[in-house]
Design a protein that fits this description.
Layout lengths: L8 H17 L15 H13 L5 H9 L2 H4 L4 H8 L1 H9 L8 H11 L5 H20 L7 H16 L6 H24 L1
Helix pairs in contact: 1-3, 2-3, 2-8, 3-6, 3-8, 5-6, 7-9, 8-9, 8-10, 9-10
């Protein structure tokens, strides 16, 4: 990691270009939630969580957070990311990218198994990604997801987060609180029905 602060000209330029690049790549995608927000909101949220909650100031990690779903969900190639953002950013993006050739359940299993072995930057991005997804499940869940499915997601995300622990106490506390609040909201809805 370069530890280049995004407050210098090069860091700001790289960050803004990553946002533009990611927005273009995700331009026809929407989040699965009831509000169907533009997909780009998610990677921006992940980067914001890293910056604001986790006090992460490494530009490669923030840029990789913006790009974290481009390999998995768009036609972006590793060569594009390396050429535009460098090998360190590419390494982080690849590390948090699921192998879409595998069945969904296997990808989920591998996220739990491999979380502990990720680099610091990849752990930070994964943790912020899970926080963003948990917040979405609590605030704007996919309309076809039952409460039980949402609770199952929380259980799975908690298992993934176990392997990410020890990387950033502020993010971990925020994750725990997001899980607690979302679980309570969902369980309250179950008892109301």
């Amino acid at each position: 990691m370069t530890n280049l602060m995004p407050t210098d000209e090069r860091g700001i330029s790289l960050l803004l270009y990553a946002i533009k690049f990611s927005a273009e790549k995700h331009r026809n995608q929407r989040r699965k939630g009831a509000d169907a927000f533009p997909y780009i909101n998610h990677p921006i949220d992940v980067a914001d969580i890293l910056w604001r909650i986790g006090s992460v100031r490494d530009i490669d990690t923030i840029v990789a957070a913006i790009l974290h779903d481009t390999l998995e969900d768009t036609d972006t190639t590793p060569a594009e990311i390396a050429a535009l953002f460098g090998d360190d950013v590419l390494s982080l993006v690849e590390e948090v990218t699921d192998d879409k050739s595998l069945p969904k359940e296997e990808r989920k299993r591998l996220q739990v198994v491999n979380a502990y072995y990720k680099s610091t930057g990849a752990k930070l991005i994964k943790l912020a990604d899970k926080i963003s997804n948990i917040n979405d499940i609590g605030n704007s869940p996919p309309t076809e997801w039952s409460i039980e499915r949402r609770l199952n997601y929380l259980d799975w995300a908690t298992k993934v987060a176990l392997g990410l622990r020890g990387v950033n106490s502020a993010l971990e506390e925020y994750f725990d609180e997001a899980i607690r609040q979302t679980r309570k909201r969902l369980e309250d809805r179950l008892t109301d029905d």
